[in-house]
Amino acid sequence: MKSLANPSTARLLITCPDKEGIVSAVSSFLYNHGANITALDQYTTAPEGGTYFMRLEFQTPHLDISRQVLAKTFGDTVATRYGMTWQLSFASDVKKMAILVSKYDHALLELLWRWSRGGLPCQISAVVSNHDDLKGAVEAFGVPFHVVKVTQENKVEAEAQIQALLQGNDLVVLARYMQILSADFVSQWQHKIINIHHSFLPAFVGANPYQQAYDKGVKLIGATAHYVTADLDQGPIIEQDVERVSHGDNVKTLRDLGEDVERNVLARAVRWHLEDRVIVYGNKTIVFN
Amino acid sequence: MKSLANPSTARLLITCPDKEGIVSAVSSFLYNHGANITALDQYTTAPEGGTYFMRLEFQTPHLDISRQVLAKTFGDTVATRYGMTWQLSFASDVKKMAILVSKYDHALLELLWRWSRGGLPCQISAVVSNHDDLKGAVEAFGVPFHVVKVTQENKVEAEAQIQALLQGNDLVVLARYMQILSADFVSQWQHKIINIHHSFLPAFVGANPYQQAYDKGVKLIGATAHYVTADLDQGPIIEQDVERVSHGDNVKTLRDLGEDVERNVLARAVRWHLEDRVIVYGNKTIVFN
Amino acid sequence: MKSLANPSTARLLITCPDKEGIVSAVSSFLYNHGANITALDQYTTAPEGGTYFMRLEFQTPHLDISRQVLAKTFGDTVATRYGMTWQLSFASDVKKMAILVSKYDHALLELLWRWSRGGLPCQISAVVSNHDDLKGAVEAFGVPFHVVKVTQENKVEAEAQIQALLQGNDLVVLARYMQILSADFVSQWQHKIINIHHSFLPAFVGANPYQQAYDKGVKLIGATAHYVTADLDQGPIIEQDVERVSHGDNVKTLRDLGEDVERNVLARAVRWHLEDRVIVYGNKTIVFN
Amino acid sequence: MKSLANPSTARLLITCPDKEGIVSAVSSFLYNHGANITALDQYTTAPEGGTYFMRLEFQTPHLDISRQVLAKTFGDTVATRYGMTWQLSFASDVKKMAILVSKYDHALLELLWRWSRGGLPCQISAVVSNHDDLKGAVEAFGVPFHVVKVTQENKVEAEAQIQALLQGNDLVVLARYMQILSADFVSQWQHKIINIHHSFLPAFVGANPYQQAYDKGVKLIGATAHYVTADLDQGPIIEQDVERVSHGDNVKTLRDLGEDVERNVLARAVRWHLEDRVIVYGNKTIVFN
Question: Is the pLDDT of residue D133 over 50?
Fold first, then answer.
């Protein structure tokens, strides 16, 4: 389940109304075209009349048609018959990812580090920040670093500038980016922006969650990776985790502990997205991991 | 730290303004009267000008004065000098505990089971319920079971009846008791009622937290044990824990998993209270465990 | 994934050499006979030339043939073609389970309790013990309790007596049964006896693992549920878990904490077995949960 | 408990036969010299006749004597009276740490990263490796990097060379250093070398623990940080942790997951050592954290 894909791996994500025969239809289609299914996960929201989700990994060395024709044929036949929303991707088409960050470096560095060790199957095309503090750390990884200052006055222009820098990416990660993106910006990247929120949502939405957690006296603190929607801190949750704390912790030690949770949670969510393991359904996610 | 006390164990809980010399004063007082300190925990909210908390366990076989005189002398000397709020208890004075419950049995049975195996140092004097469903299960443990039906009309009388049944107890546990206690009732048991809430507070306050968790699509569910205050679901948190869930869970499986978390969290909180490990400070708790 | 099955659920477990087309063949066979696949998990030990494992859950209300004919036809066609070892079971054929126990009650009571609340899909036919201590506790659940004393002298006769009591069961659980079963006994119940071992195997095999853990100064203790083979403590592991401990724990508190781990680990392993989620392969298990 | 110390913090570690009056004697001594106790932990191996351990943190701005005189006076009076083994250290005397490493970078980089962010209270004086692969990564943190090749022939000279490089350090960390240090080397750094072992000891001692874990089919993998003794993989355990795995993992994914556990476990153990939270007693540790 957790193995990184080799270059001949393809992945098919499917969402459709649940009906009998879907597994048979999809697997027979692939078999008939020389694809070897090496992973298959499915989920349905209800035994009768539910919505059906499927993820397949298959190997492509013995395909009897080109990838393009395979995709077109699947769309014209099986997908049409079952009313599927679907997405076919190939591990050899490496995804491009950009990262937005402000001053905190922990989440950013975790991503860069894992990526540099082969743990994130993507190309990191750029890091964009509203501060220049992390320029050296980023460039040490051989990744271009861009500064786009954002103020209340220049917000529209700044976002346009960021958009220009992000063109061509498949995924944008907010690794503790402290600016709120406009609804317009977000709408152009639907389910393609992942944010790390430094609390166990829906607890402690908004600013300064570690202070809120301290004031409340909780015994666990957490972090949440989610897709960004126009509704702040409310997008579909991909992954969460927690760490035990005690009365002996103060806001600073909560933050220190929390940053470790943040970087792990974000790294997992980003990897799952890159491996096509996440399907968004309404305001929730199906994660086949 | 986790050892159950033997009958000669005494415990002293202290809250006072932080000042130099407290440890010295308390430990010298005890030493001078023949007490042997076997556990000591302390915490201060700030290095300068904070509030100081201390928990001591000591052994009493060689006390040079009676327990009563020890307490009075401590109060007149050390405690007065440092402005302490304090509480001295003896493991041989076994605490009395009552349990309120409705129809769910998991939290109740966990407590009865652990208690019957010697895991909760208390006497369980009674279980009171607004339903009679659990009568057999409770009486199998040799514990008296009382039914007090509560309706919108009889609420005042019902609470009076419950109060009468609870007299003499040191602790009341709400093991999924589905009636809201009046502010008046609660005020008579300050920091002596422990409730188990079936969510990771402050997320999902109010009714049906598992449905809320399902609708939100969280990846962990939790439970919270807290002291009951007049402010519903807002009392000082004693203990919390979580369990990992996935998109594949429905409300029923969330509840099944959650019930396991609830019973463990409640059992820990109750044991810590019985072992005098919890000090309430404002709306938070210090837990020396 | 975690939903308990309804009575119309059937489950198919398959082990065979990995080849292209298996998913297609199995799912098409089921679809063609009116079965609706509601869960499907698969795993292969290697991308090329590996061993393939599959678990399907499907619903049977609209089968076009009887269950018997479905099984026979599957065996004669798909299973034969792919060289499958397979097992087809129906949730409505409730499995029968017996429990062997000595004096410790925690693992036994956890199973009885979960079973009484509908959490274990089986019929508990009998509890057999070499002591009579737990007779009352077992009979309170309406389960027959049998005592078979075992001594060095009567071991052969005692095992024969136990075998007679166990006839007709699908699963035998050793819930801290302190007698070692003979190789002959074990061989008659291959992959049908589950034991709970009170350590994180392979650490601390043999007697008194909590003492061993204490002497070693480990910072986590664990428990392991495994199938019983003739090789003591070496059978295929089904599930494990751990709990954090510290220098402050002694052998007794390690045991208290460990018993909580044991009962949870055993309950999970037993449920997975009853839901046909476990396939044994060599000395390891595939667990589709 | 978890707060990093400020420069005026001092720490006292004590081991002695348990007797009444120790807390009183130590705390009164400190109070009388103007020290303010801000943390105090204690543990005794037995209620009667045990060995007693204590850790104090106190603040030194108002000491009435110099640090040197404080230490000497304590040694001459309280420590002598109670037969204490003790150690007094000052947070302002920053400890010096060196790291030995081979080719794996994850544990090393975690330490460098946390250190560079202020998370490890020490000076990292040098990294020594038997390979030059990590030279660039280390020097990017401004830390000197030395290569000492070790072969079967030059082992004695190589160790002498390493010893020379390590002189003056308070702690040596083996961050996946793949050479076995000689007993003679180890004896010169008693309880001052911390190793990270990539398994949950005592399971899977020796080479290739991830392969061993895979072959055994365990459901959790772990890592262990321990002090190095002449007895390979058998030194006192400081910290351990585990991560859940499944049949779907292969040796490579076990290693990937395990490396995350390794770096966290090692970072915690090193921090605790640097904060004087660890006392070795026989082959076990007392960790006041």
Answer: yes
Chain B residues touching residue A222 (CB < 8 angstroms): 220
Examine the fold and report which residue of B90, B110, B130 is the final residue of a domain before the chain moves on.
Answer: B90
Taking the Cβ of residue A271 and every Cβ of chain D, the question of whether any pair is shorter than 8 Å is answered with no
Length of chain D: 289
Determine, yes or no, domain membership for D273. Answer: yes
Scanning C15-74 for CB atoms below 8 A from D yields 43
* Residues B134/B135/B137/B139 CA torsion (nearest 10 deg): 150
Shortest Cα–Cα distance, C270 to chain A (Å): 24
Q: Quick check: B142 pLDDT over 80?
A: yes
Residue A87 touches chain D, beta carbons under 8 Å:
no
Average pLDDT, chain A: 94
CB contact under 8 A, B117 and C140: no
**Structural domain includes residue B2:** no
Nearest CA to CA, how far is C115 from chain A (Å)?
Answer: 25
Give the structural domain span for B269. 95-287
Residues C80 and C18 reside in one and the same domain: yes
Domain count, chain A: 2
Confidence tier at D7 by pLDDT (50, 70, 90): confident
H or E element at residue A82: helix A80-82
Say if B1 falls within a structural domain: no
pTM: 0.94
**Do C72 and C112 have their domain in common?**
no
Choose the closest CB to D249 out of A2, A119, A140.
A2
Give yes or no: residues A144 and A161 share one domain: yes
- CATH of residue D139: 3.40.50.170
Site of tokens 């994500």: A13
In a mutational test of the A interface, the residue from D3, D6, D134, D139 whose CB has the highest number of chain A CBs within 10 Å is D3
pLDDT-derived band at A5, boundaries 50, 70, 90: low
Q: Which of B27, B33, B44 to mutate to test the interface with D (most CBs of D within 10 A)?
A: B27
Q: Is the pLDDT of residue D236 over 50?
A: yes
Residue D276 annotated in active site: no
Q: Are C148 and C225 members of one domain? A: yes
What phi and psi, each to the nearest 5 degrees, are found at residue B207?
-80, 150
Confidence at D147, pLDDT banded by 50, 70, 90? very high
Check CB contact of B289 with chain D, cutoff 8 Å.
no
Q: Is the pLDDT of residue A263 over 50?
A: yes
Structural domain contains residue D2 = no
Whether C235 contacts chain D with CB within 8 A: no
Q: Is D2–A140 a contact, with Cβ atoms under 8 angstroms apart?
A: no
Residues D69 and D116 in one domain: no
Could you tell me the CATH number of the domain that includes residue D32? 3.30.70.260
State whether C110 and C29 are in the same domain: no
The answer to whether A217 contacts B247, with C-beta atoms less than 8 Å apart, is no
- Does A3 contact chain D (CB < 8 Å)? yes
Give the DSSP H or E segment for C1.
none
Q: D217 and D240 in contact (C-beta within 8 Å)?
A: no
Give the tens place of pLDDT for each residue, B197-239: 999 888 898 888 999 999 999 999 999 999 999 988 899 999 9
Residues B108 and B20 in one domain: no
Q: Do D169 and D50 share a structural domain?
A: no
Residue from C219, C240, C244, C278 whose CB has the most chain D CBs within 10 Å, to mutate: C219
